[in-house]
Specification:
Chain lengths: 127, 132
C-alpha cells in the first residue's frame, strides 16, 4: 500500500531525494538538478510504501495541443505559426497550465524545434 | 491578424478533406476528434483563421506531465510494486480532475517495458514548450 505526501524543498525528506538524484547515473547524465526537481511552477510529492519513501514525483500541468493543418496552404501556416504558438501559450496560461505539449510528426518535427519546442521521448497513458 | 473560433458541425466536411489530404493523419484521423464534444469544455476545439479563412484546426486538452526520481535500483522490488500502484492511483485521480492523459519522459528500457504492460505507450515525437 502506498501513500503520497506533498514535498517542499525545505522538508528533511528532500535530502533523500537529492541523494537519489546524485546516485542516479541517467539523471546525472541528462543534468537534472534539485532546482529543477523543485521547479516553482510545479508540485512535488514523495511516495511511500510500508518501508518508507520509494520515489518522488513532480507534477506539471500541461496543455496538450493537436493541430490539423490545411495541407494545401503550407506557406500560410508557416507565416502565422509564431502567432499561433503565442496563442497556445496564452490559452495554457489562462487555464493554469505551465507548458504546452505537442506530438509532431513528419515535417512538423523540424518546424516545432524552430518554434522553440524541445523534444522528449514520452511514455503516455490515456485516462 | 489571426482569428480563433470554436469549431462546429459545419466544419466536418472541410475536416474530412484536410485529413484525407494529410499523409500524417490520413487513415488514423477522424473529424470527430476536432469537433466540439465536451460540454464542460475540458476539451477545446478551435479553427484558426488568417485573412483568407481557416488555416488550422486545433484541439486542446489537459495533460498531466510527470517527472519521477526513483530510489536506487537496489530497491527494485519495492519500486516495481510502488510504480504499479502509483500508476493506477494517479490515472484515477487525473481522470477525476478532467485530465485526458498522463505523460512522462523515459529512455530507460526496463521501465518502458514495465509500464507498457500497464497500459502506457511510447511516443517518441513529443515536444514541449514552457510558457516563459
Amino acid at each position: 500500500m502506498i501513500y503520497v505526501k506533498k514535498l517542499q524543498k525545505t522538508d528533511p525528506e528532500a535530502n533523500l531525494v537529492a541523494e537519489w538524484l546524485k546516485n542516479d547515473p541517467l539523471h546525472q547524465q541528462i543534468g537534472i538538478t534539485m532546482d529543477e526537481v523543485f521547479d516553482p511552477n510545479s508540485e512535488v510529492a514523495l511516495i511511500f510504501d510500508e518501508n518508507g519513501p520509494v520515489m518522488a514525483v513532480r507534477f506539471q500541468q500541461a496543455l496538450r495541443v493537436a493541430i490539423q493543418f490545411n495541407p494545401d496552404t503550407p506557406y500560410r501556416s508557416a507565416k502565422i505559426a509564431r502567432e499561433v504558438v503565442q496563442w497556445f501559450k496564452d490559452l495554457a496560461k489562462k487555464s493554469g497550465k505551465t507548458e504546452v505539449v505537442i506530438r509532431a510528426g513528419g515535417k512538423a518535427e523540424k518546424f516545432a524545434e524552430k518554434l522553440g519546442f524541445k523534444e522528449f521521448i514520452g511514455q503516455f497513458i490515456e485516462v | 491578424m489571426l482569428k480563433f473560433r470554436k469549431t462546429t458541425e459545419a466544419d466536418r466536411k472541410r475536416l474530412e478533406e484536410w485529413i484525407e489530404a494529410d499523409p500524417d493523419h490520413k487513415d488514423r484521423g477522424n473529424p470527430e476528434f476536432w469537433l466540439p464534444q465536451d460540454p464542460a469544455e475540458h476539451i477545446q476545439t478551435f479553427a484558426v483563421q488568417d485573412e483568407q479563412g481557416d488555416v488550422f484546426f486545433v484541439r486542446g486538452e489537459n495533460c498531466l506531465r510527470l517527472h519521477i526520481q526513483f530510489a536506487p535500483a537496489s530497491e527494485k522490488r519495492r519500486l516495481a510494486k510502488a510504480i504499479s500502484e502509483f500508476s493506477d492511483t494517479i490515472a484515477r485521480s487525473a481522470k477525476k480532475l478532467k485530465y485526458t492523459e498522463i505523460i512522462f519522459e523515459s529512455i530507460f528500457a526496463p521501465l518502458i517495458r514495465f509500464l507498457e504492460k500497464r497500459g502506457f505507450h511510447s511516443s517518441p515525437n513529443e515536444f514541449v514548450k514552457d510558457l516563459s
